[in-house]
């Protein structure tokens, strides 16, 4: 979850520092009572179903035919492209494109979590961590585009860190690692 939440929180904080966002007063009691229910709704209604499709079905369908890198790129770009028509994509063409870019990087981070963890739950955790952080940050963006770029950078770094921790996308090394574990 941290790989999804921390880039968002860092993006909001950076937006405030560079003048692209302002701190807003926050009702802590409302946040503490509403956030747990919202987190469950976001997991069951958004993060898990989307990850079941993209990092589950599509990822598994492409994996036997393509390299791990190609699967990660295809699932990330397809996931991001669908966000061009999403409700949260902003009002201008530029905002819509930046929103799709940010969603692509969320797909990359979730895909990297799938590669690292070998299953769906880590990917769902990245996606799930993203949404409560996005909805609970007490910042009003003054520039939606700058905030989207900052989130995209943070999610890309989170995905790269997840891949680096597992030796990257080299199928030969991963396969060798898995084979050596099964022989022990």
Description:
This protein has 184 residues and is mainly alpha-helical. It has one domain. Helices cover 77% and strands 3% of the residues. It contains 7 helices and 2 strands, in the order H-E-H-H-H-H-E-H-H. Helix 2 packs across helix 3, helix 2 crosses helix 4 and helix 2 runs antiparallel to helix 5. The longest helix has 35 residues. The protein is globular, with a radius of gyration of 17 Å. The protein starts with a helix and ends with a helix.
Instruction: Report low-confidence residues grouped into runs of 5 or more.
Output: 172-184
The strands making up the biggest β-sheet line up spatially as: 1-2
Total strands: 2
Shape: globular
What is the C-alpha radius of gyration, as a whole number of Å?
17 Å
One letter per element, helices H and strands E, the order comes to HEHHHHEHH
Largest sheet: 2 strands, antiparallel
Question: Which key phrases capture this entry?
Answer:
transmembrane; hydrolase; globular; mainly alpha; 3% strand; two-stranded antiparallel sheet; 184 residues; membrane
Brief digest:
The C terminus is likely disordered. By secondary structure, the chain is mainly α. Helix 2 packs across helix 4 and helix 2 packs antiparallel against helix 5.
How are the secondary structure elements laid out?
Elements: H1 2-17, E1 21-23, H2 28-62, H3 68-82, H4 93-117, H5 120-136, E2 139-141, H6 144-164, H7 171-183
Antiparallel strand pairs: 1-2
